[in-house]
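stage 2 :: seqdesign
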C-alpha cells in the first residue's frame, strides 16, 4: 500500500495509467465483455483487472486519470441493444463517479455495442472490473494536467 493511492490500483494498472498519453483511451469493462481477446489487440496487449464493481473501478482510475477536455467524447458508455437512450443503474453510478472526479457535470456519450468493441480494440488498454450487471462498459480518453502555475 502507498499513501494517497487508491488501494485498488495495482502495479500493472499504475504502469499503464502513467504510460498513457493525451488522447489515449482506456476501457473499463464488465465480466461479460470479451476482455481478453479485445485487450490482446490494444497498445498494451494484456488484460488488466481491478477487483471491484465498475463504479468503484472508475473511481480508482479517475483518482489519477484526467479526462480529455478537448473532445466531446472523452467518456463513453456502451448503449443498451435496442434501447440506446436507456441508461442502466450501473451507468448512472459511473456517471456520478465521473462528475465527482471532474468536479462538474460531464455527461457520458453513448456508443453502439459493436462500435464499442471496435473502438475498444484501438484503446491503449482494457481493465476488466468484477461488474456483473449488464452494460458496465466504458471508454475514457486521457486528458492533460497543466503545469502547476496554471492550476487554479
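stage 2 :: out
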Amino acid at each position: 500500500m502507498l499513501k494517497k493511492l487508491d488501494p485498488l490500483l495495482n502495479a500493472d494498472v499504475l504502469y499503464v495509467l502513467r504510460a498513457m498519453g493525451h488522447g489515449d483511451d482506456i476501457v473499463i469493462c464488465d465480466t461479460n465483455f470479451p476482455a481478453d481477446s479485445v485487450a490482446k489487440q490494444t497498445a498494451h496487449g494484456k488484460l488488466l483487472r481491478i477487483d471491484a464493481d465498475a463504479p468503484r473501478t472508475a473511481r480508482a482510475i479517475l483518482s489519477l486519470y484526467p479526462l480529455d477536455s478537448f473532445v466531446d467524447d472523452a467518456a463513453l458508455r456502451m448503449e443498451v441493444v435496442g434501447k440506446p437512450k436507456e441508461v442502466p443503474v450501473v451507468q448512472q453510478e459511473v456517471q456520478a463517479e465521473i462528475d465527482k472526479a471532474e468536479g462538474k457535470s460531464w455527461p457520458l456519450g453513448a456508443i453502439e455495442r459493436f462500435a464499442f468493441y471496435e473502438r475498444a480494440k484501438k484503446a491503449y488498454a482494457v481493465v476488466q472490473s468484477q461488474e456483473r450487471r449488464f452494460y458496465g462498459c466504458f471508454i475514457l480518453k486521457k486528458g492533460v494536467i497543466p503545469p502547476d502555475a496554471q492550476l487554479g
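stage 3 :: structure notes
- The chain has one domain: 29-146.
- The mean pLDDT is 95.
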